[in-house]
Structures are given as C-alpha cells and as structure tokens.
Fold each of these.
Amino acid sequence: MDAQLKRGLLDVCVLAAIKNEDSYGYKIIKDMKPYLEMSESTLYTILKRLETASMLTVRTAEHDGRLRKYYHITAAGHRRIEEFKTEWKEVISIYQFVTKGDGEYA
Amino acid sequence: MRKQEFLDALKSGLTGLPQEDIGERLTFYGEMIDDRMEEGLSEEDAVAAIGPVEQVINEIVAETPLTKLVKERIKPKRRLRAWEIVMLVIGFPLWFPLTVAALLLVVVFYLVLWVLVICLWAVETVLWAAALFGLVAAVLYTLRGYVCRVRRRAARCGADADRAFGLPVCGLHGGKRRNGEACKEDRARNQKNVCRKGENKMKKGAVITAVVLIVLGLSLFIGGLAAGGSFQPIEVQEKTYTVTEPSSLRSKCPSTRISMEFMRSVSSRGFKPV
C-alpha cells in the first residue's frame, strides 16, 4: 500500500483493535495482520502518540509471572473512530469518481 | 540470538537517547518477545520475528525527534567521583571567597558605569539650572532698567520712586543712594545718568550671559542624552532554531532516504550543534 495512505490508517486501526476489549502489544499486531503489516517500532510510536492525545490509557497487569502492558480506549479514541467513519464516506465517493467509466478496463 | 543478547544489543545501539526512552523501548520489545514465546515460538524464532537488531535501532533512531537527540548529547553526564567531591569540600575556603570576590567585582564594575552616567546627568541638570537662573537674572536686570526708567520719570515728576512697582530695587541699584538734602532735581538727574549707564550695561550683560548659559545648557543636555543612550545594556537575543523531524520529512518526500549512518552518528558519536 502507498506509504502515505497507510500512515493515515495506522492510528485508527490500532484504536479499532482495542475498541471492544483491552489488548496488549503483540495481540494488536496479530489482529491487524490480515489488514495491515506493522512493525514493533511503528506500533510503539503509534501507541505513544495515542497516549499523548489521550485516546488510550495504559495499565500494567501481571500475566504468567511477568508484567504486561494493556491498552484501553478512551472516549476520545471512540470519537476518533467515528470521525474516521465519516471521513471515509467522502473517500468512497472519491473512489467512485476515480473509477467512473472504468467499466471496460476494471 | 537470545532475548537478552537482543536487548543488550538494542540498549547499546540506543545510546544517545534519553534514559527513560531507552528503558521504555527495552520493556516493550522484551514484552513482544515474551508474547511470541508464549504463542509457542522458540526464543530464537521470537527474536528473529522482530527483525535484525540493526534495523530496529535504525527505525527507533529515525523516529526520535532530532531535538531529543541533541538535548541528550548536550546534557553533560554529571557523575562526580568520590575524590572530586572530597576536593570540592576541602577547597571550599579557597574557591568560595574567590568566587564571591569575582562576582562582587562584576557588580562593582557595573555600578561604576552607572555612577558615571549619573554624574553626567547631574552636571547637565546643574547647567540647566544655571541657564534658568541666567534667564531669570536677565529678566530682572532688564526689568530693573525699566524700573530705572520709570524712576527717572517719577523723579522728574518729583515723586519718590524708590518703591516703583513695589519692587525692592534698592539693593540692585548701581549708584549711591542720596538721602536727605539733595535737591530733587539733582537726585533725579543723578538717578537718570546712573540708571541710563547701568541700564545699558546690565541689559547687554544680562542678555549675553543668558544666551551663553542657554546654549551651554542645551549642548550639554544633548551630549548627556547621547552618552546615556550609549550606556544601554546590549540586549541578547535568543534565537530559536526549529529542527524538522526526519520522520515528517520522510512522509513529505517518500523518495528521500535520510542516510541511516547519519542518524546513527548523531545518536552515538559526537554531534556538534549548529
């Protein structure tokens, strides 16, 4: 995928991964794998950025005798997802414009 | 590569970043490796799945804003050794008074400069006062001449004009005062002559003095202003340099490849701030 496009989608994807239940680092990557490939360092940066923007909170919990960080979405995070859904309606109409009259070649 | 090897390599590769950032990264990657191992991967495979250490280091460094790296570089590592602390304590009676003396010298020097300025202003003020006094004196003298003229007229008319206009001009009169018997005509004549001569001299003298004093006063006032102006402390302007983040650069110009070597050299080796 185009790097620019991908960059805009990563934040929302991570938020979606923790939307329904708290998740941890590796699980987020796994959940996103069918859709977007993400490296650990990229994930780290995104998680840090979302935390600064108060779209998620972090808590450390014990798991199997070691500590693990769990990420929890906030109201701001939910709002961001809603924003994304609205924005993409426009994207869809642009897509339709781009593919207009492509019938023969599609 | 085993987990600890990976983490150690990562730690050494990230020197140049702030300590807390390094700590956070190490926990994060350690967690990732542990999670993969939980899934069933072997330690080697878990580490391998993250990717080569070099690449990870490059990515991290590339994403750290340049300002953070520079700040960390500039911050001196203050680790005072034991003997240094002892030396500082022992030498206290020596370096402390010296430092205080040096500071006081600076303060005194600054004060001396200000005293100079104050002196200039004081001189200038005094001259203004002198000019004003000269003006007042000129006015009074001229007035006295006028009064003399009135006195003459009054004397001609025979009236005693010593108290003309209520001004006590007795003391200022150049001529001797004739009292008692001198005939009014003589008195009037004498007064006339003395007044006339005195009048002209006084007028000329007063005007010249007033003009000279005013000119002096003005020139010194302007000089004082100029001197005072040049004593203003030089204002140090703080310039802020904005540093563009390499990651933002990358998104704007995806085809630009910022040399990884450069990024690494910034973080680990010497960096001379521009």
Amino acid sequence: MTAAAIAREVGAQLAKADSAGLNATLHWSTECLEAEARRVDGMNTPGALHALPIAVKDNIVTIEEPTTCGSRILEGYLSPYTATAVRRLRAAGAMVACKANLDEFAMGSSTEHSAYGRVKNPLAHDRVPGGSSGGSAALVAADVVPAALGSETGGSVRQPASFCGVVGVKPTYGRVSRYGLVAFGSSLDCISVFGKTVDEATRVLAVMSGPDPLDATTVDRPPMKPAPAMASLQGLKVGLPREYFPTDLHPGVRAGLDRTVAVLRDLGATVSEVSLPHSKYAVPTYYIIAPAEAAANLARYDGVRYGVRKVGPEGNIGALYRATRGSGFGAEVRRRILIGTYVLSAGYYDAYYRKAQTVRALIAQDFQRVLGSNGVDLLLTPTTPTPAFKAGEKTEDPVQMYLADIFVCAISLAGLPALSLPVGRDQGLPIGAQLIAAAFDEPRLLAVAGLLERSLHGTEEVR
Amino acid sequence: MSWETVIGLEVHVQLLTRSKMFCGCSTAFGDPPNTNVCPVCLGLPGALPVPNARAIRLATRAALALGCTVNGRSVFARKNYFYPDLPKGYQISQFDQPLAIHGGLEFESPERGRMRCGITRLHVEEDAGKSLHDRFPGKTAVDLNRAGVPLAEIVSEPDLRSPAEARVYLTTLKQILMYAEVSDCSMEQGSLRVDANISIRKAGDSTLGTKSEVKNLNSFANVERALTAERDRQIGLVESGQRITQSTLLFNAGTGQVRLLRSKEESHDYRYFPDPDLPPLVLSKEWIEEQGAALPELPDAKRERLVMAYGLSLEHARVIAADRAFANYFEAVVAAGAESQAAANWVMGDALAGYNAIGRFAVAPARLAELTQLVAKNKVSQQAAKRVFASDELADPSTASTLAVAEKLGLTQVSDTGALGGWVDEVLTAFPKEVERYRAGETKLIAFFVGQVMKRSQGKADPKGVQPVLAEKLNAVKK
C-alpha cells in the first residue's frame, strides 16, 4: 500500500471519528495528510516507520498545524519549528495524521479540561477517555491511527491507555527529547506513546529515543534497541507492591490483575510481594512539584509576544497580563498556577517545595531498592483504581480527579519507564495493568509486555 | 556625629562569547531590533535552554582571577517575575548554589591605603531584553537581541567605606576582567553594569544600617557621584530625625540626584527554584585547575614583575600595567633592545597618547627600540625623536629601519665639529651685542647661543656638541 492510500484511509477515519462526536482531534486536513504521504512516498529508502500514521498530542509543536495545548491563550498559535521527536518519526517515514485534543496544557485526568470541549471515550461515549492525552488515546482506541504521541507529567498516557484499552508507554525521563513538547512540569514531562499493540508503541519509541543536543536533560545513551520477542518468562522476577493493591480496589480491576498474575506465573515468572512505603505520598508530592514548575513554565503566556492578547481596561502592562491570562487560561490551569506560585513563595518554599523534593527522593529510593540486582525485575500494579469514570463525575472535585492518578504518579516522580497494558474488561470497560521497570530497562519491559499481550490476546476478557 | 558609609556593589559583566547563554544566537551589539533571536531566547512554547560551554569557561576564569573558590557543582535557578522584555517570565540565573564564592579584590583605597574588598559570589545568568520607552510615542517597544546574552554577576561584600573607594574597586575589577579576557567591560554598550547598595551607621557601630540600592549608573564617575548624593541624603535624613526606608533608587546623571524607583513593600518575591531544564553544572577539579592555569598574568603580578625585572618605579609600573596591551608593548620594546626606563618613558608618553587616539600602538616595538637607541647615541635629538615617532613613515609596517626614516625626514643630529662650527660662526656674526655681553662676563648667555644654533640647524645640531664649539670660539676671540 502506498502512503497516499494509507493517508486517504486515515482521512476517512478521522472524518468518521469527528462526525461520531469523539472530539478527539483539534487540527487536521486532507492537504496536510496528502503532503505527508507525498513526502513519504518520495523517500528513497523506506524508514522503520514507513507510512505509519501517527496522531500527535496538541502540546507537541509541528509547523504545519497550530499548537494550542487545548488552551484559548494559544488559539491559532503556529510554531516556527517542529519538535525533535516528531522530526525523528518523520525521518523514519511516519506521517503526522492530526493534532489531538487534550486537557488544557496537559493538566487533567479526563480530557474534560480542554478549552475546545471534552473528548469522549470511544468505548462508552458517556465516559471519559482519561487524560490528559485523551484525544490521542481515543484515536488509537477508535482504530483511527495505530499509534499516537501523548505526553506524561504524572500518568497522562498510562491512565488514558488504561481507560481506552490501548497500550501506553512512558519512557525513562531523559530517554526522549522534550524539545518541542510544551512544558508543564519540566522535571516530569516525557513524550510518551500509545499503540494499538505493544509492537507499534515499541517501534515508535525506538525511533524517538536518543540524546538530543537541544535538550540538556536527555541522557547520553544510544537510542533504545528493542529486545527480541520472548517465548517464556522463566527466571523473571515480578514484584507486586502491596501499597498498590488496597482492599477497596475496584473488583473489576482486581480481577484483571489477578488474571495477569496467573498468566505471568504460567509463563514462568516468579511473582512476589514487595513494598514501596513512600508511594502513598506521591499524589500530594506531585501536586506541589508539578504546579511549581508549571507556574514558571506558563509565565511566558503573557500576551506580549504571541498568542491571544487582551489589553485590559486600564491599558497598562499589568492590566494586559491580568486580562490575557485571566481569560486565556481555564479554571484548572489557573488553579495550578496559583498552587505553584504559593508553594514557591517566600516563607513557604521550605515547607512545601523543599519538603516535596525530599519526599520525591524517598519515593525514588523505594523503587531503586526493590528493582534491580537484589530485588525484582519488574513491578506489576493496576494502572488506575477504577475503569473509566463518567464525564462530569469528578470535575467539581479536583482532589478526586487528582486521585485518579494515584497509581501512576510515583513512577513519574521517580523518572522510571512504565506502561499500561489492557488486561481485561469490566462491564465492557477496559482494565489496564501497569508494568514498571528500572531506569532504561525499556527493552525488557516492552518484551515482557509483548509476550503478556500475546498470551492474553483473543481471550474473551481482554477484547 | 561622625558617620561611616558602608557600600557593596553588584556588577554585571557580559561574557565575551559570540553566541548567547542558552542558544546559538549572536550576541552582536547594535544589530537591528529582534534580529538575533530564536525559539529559545524568544521563550517560544516547547523550546529548551542548553548552556554555552564558553560562557561557563569564561565565568570560571573570571572567578579564579578574582580569587574565588569555584564550586564543583552549581545549580541554575529560575528567577520569576513578569516584565515585557523577559520572554519566559523568568530569568535563568543561579541562586543558592552559585558558580563561585569567597573571592576578593586588593587595591589602593584613596582613604585607607592597601585594602581588600571581599567578593561574596560570582554566578552566571542570562540577560533580559531591552524595553525602549522613547521609540514610539505612548508605547513601549521591546528588543530581544540582548535576551539570553551571558552575564556574570559579581557581588561584593559590604567592605567599601566611601564612594571614592567604590570607584577604585570598580576600576580594579574592570582591569582584572579585561586582563583575563572574559569581558570587554564596555559601559557604553552595556557589557558592564553596576548596582550599588549603600547604608550609613554611626562610626564604630558593627550592625549595618538600612540600605538603599542605587541603579542606572552608567559610568564609574557616576557611581561615585550617585553614592555621594545618596550618602549625603541618608545622613541628612538621619540628622533631621527621620528614618531611612529600604528602597531602590534611580540616579539621574543630569541633576546628580537620586529618585525613588520602589520601596521594599513593592519588591518582588522572585520565587527562585532550581531550573528543571538544566542539570546541575558539574565541573571537575582538573578542569577548574586548567582554567586557572590558562589565566594570563594579572595586574598585581604584572606590576610587581615590572618593578623587579625592569627596575621601574611602582608608579610607572602602575601606569604600564593598567592595560595588558601597554605592558605587552613595553616588554616588546625592551626585548627589541631599548633600555627599560627609556622604553617606559615612551610608552607612558607619546605611545600611550597615540594608543588613546587610535586604540592601538602604531609603531612597531623594534622601530621604537631603535629610536631610543638613536637618542641614546645622540643621533637624534629628543625633540626630533618625537617627530620621527609621529611620522607616517615610522608607522608604516614595511619600514625596516628607524635611522632611515630619521635621515629621510632630515632629523638626524649633527655632532661633527666642522658642521657645528659653521652654524656657530653664523650665530656669533648675527648677534654681536650678545657676544660682547658674554665676553663682558655674562656667561649665562651660553644657553641663548645654544638655542640659536639649534634654531639655525633646524634642530639637527647635537646640543651636547654645540656647547664646547661655542665656548671655544667665544673664548678664542676673547683672548
């Protein structure tokens, strides 16, 4: 099949998804798709991702389409450069299919906080797709694209992958360049990937990974090399952190995890209980560090150089800032800017930000202790406490919304690679299991997930 | 009541890099507005900073030249505030873990003699852009060419006790930074900027008074003027029973007065925190040592060596060591064969005047060395030598010999008694009355005759040779 033919098919699928009211896309056009196809069909040698259509979360900059971050303040904003990750995908033959909807500036767990409307879960339209990369997850789940880029700050790919029944992989912090990913919490942000299967996610991640001279936080290691497919898990040690299996865990989620443990054992893995005692502080720690960084990262949206500008009644610079930012940012973004400003203020820094950094180190130490030579190879946990919740269910209660990320946050704080794999259904809603690995152990993580996927695949409970 | 003035200075110098602190844009001064910009220094969404290795190298050298301890690990921090010429809404700086600490500067205080002013810290940061308030009526324009230009901020201890002392500190600091080739220290182009903190206290008190910060100081002379004005204002306030409130002031060079910019209540809470986009800056001990080894000889050492090796007076050594270019030129002239004091006199005199006029030494060191030798051998008079030195011919790089130039210009000195005798005869014939007076015993007229001979010879006569010929002829007739 030519890239042109694939691009036409993707265009048809995008149109179908839009008319079904998923609201998963923010920008796409047949012209852009055709241009992508022409570029790929004109390549001398087909790349590793030849003609693979990929949806890109709208907080990753591309020059062809606007990058709005789901915010009014960047309405119509066109970036003069393209993100490193997207450039690498394109060079490998991938085609950008569309820019996907998201929670404003990636702040949210349900993709209900987009200034351009909420995204529907393709499996149950009254449910959320998770967030903040809900548009990307929904497009993969609805079979519009086989893979999509999202971004993670505290679970924004794994959690929607779980809610939408697709694979979501967050790499080790520093594995993929952030250059061109609009910053939210810079010490946590990772461009991450959705795949219909582990295979697509692995291939996309391999191409994107590797050091980038434009991002000083990328780690100087060669790009990720996928491991060969596994046939058995003989010798693999898997830990179940007891803090991630509370007694009130949703029964459907528990059933999915039980089934996963059984398959792991069948495949030869040893499964044992471990403890990550500081993970219970992950959500409050995250909600200090991420907003602190966000408050600084979002200061640049001031109406002076680009984006939307509102002048304000007094006509001075203070009024311009107030009017632009007051109307340009949604409620959740404003809330986090206020939290972030507060925790860094004189007199509060030690009590909040400094303490949060201390706790973050303790959380990371827990993982270092259980993963590695003296511990287990991988950790298995639920990705989310429940299957996808109903739209509107948590929007009035930010703390309940934040707790949707209770099983994914700690991994982000520790900077580790992790993925969410569909392992079952509960009343038609997908259940995701999370596998966590030591830093830069993605090849094994993905190979194990691939074998698990094949072993679970086709069973009534998964699809 | 006797008051003691306490001053500390914060100096920003632009590091001599071709590209900015965190991106590849040019640091060129004076380019059209907003032409040296890119996604990084414009603060566009998704762009990330990458540190400029040369800026770190230069800042490290500056720190070592100022006797600082360079930290093996320092941390970039975000300084948060809103301003239209600050593209990201924060400045990348360093805060609680700066590049270098605990340095000091030694110099001659006009009041206290040799002294040392401590340097608290030196850190690297990026510059903001420039707000232009006078370009469009009623509007402020922003030029971001300067945004992201690398700076070193050098903070002194409050060790200075007078405005004049502050000025000497600055002169010394600038000299060292220019020696170390870390900055061109041009206040006109904004590559050296000074903020001054000043307070007063009763003489003998050990606690510090309430300080004010004076900004907008565009020359060292104005630093001294502004600090004098602010010291007098503070003393006036306290002596009239008022309190000093912590504030930031702007100096107006036109009126010589300071005016309030903001009081402490309006001061910013910068909410510093480590910049998550930049890993901690880790410098190995070996690398830091290499930077120290790469430093050139600094002014103090240079002065001492000029005294010891060349026998110059301390005062002469000070003038010649004021600029590395002077000292290098001086040493080259001596190396080419000039006697050191003669070389020093030339370098401090005509050569320095020429340097100040055109920004370089026009005459090659070898030519100047030859010129000093011609003077020493009475081949060229001191007067004529100045004309030889100033001639275009001597400055011509293709000129191979100073003697040839002096001869071509007709400025070689005549000491042949025969030739001198001709001029002497002419003079004695032209001034018979003076000859009579001389013979009557008015011998001091000898100087007049020498002058006349010099005049008649158009400066070519060797004055030392003229005198015996004159004396002989005058005395011979007398007999």
